[in-house]
# Entry
Amino acid sequence: MRRDPDRQLRDLKRRLLRQKATSEEELSIRAAIRQIPKGKVATYGQVAAAAGYPLHHRQVVRILRDAAGRLPWQRVLGAGGEIKLKGEAGLEQRRLLTLEGVTFRGKKVRMALHQFTFRVWELERELF
# Structure
């Protein structure tokens, strides 16, 4: 019996999302995060895509969590500019972004003003 191609694609995506980052992938994601300057933000998906791994936004979350503050974690947000952290951590992220000059509309960052555009050619130079 043949499997449904849509289901196969969903299963493949699910496996990719659960995979642990390779050292090369982790280096690329870290370099992308470091590239975001003060006063600018990017989403988890944008960081993953800039690093060359467009479906690995969850890996970005894991890497930020494991970095224990050694990366500018406050500059990485959920889709649409939403702070995904809950409680005190979310308030701290908002406070740090506000100190950098990032403005909000309600609970979301004003992405039209503060979204960082990655220059992938510079990212590649950082890696080598």
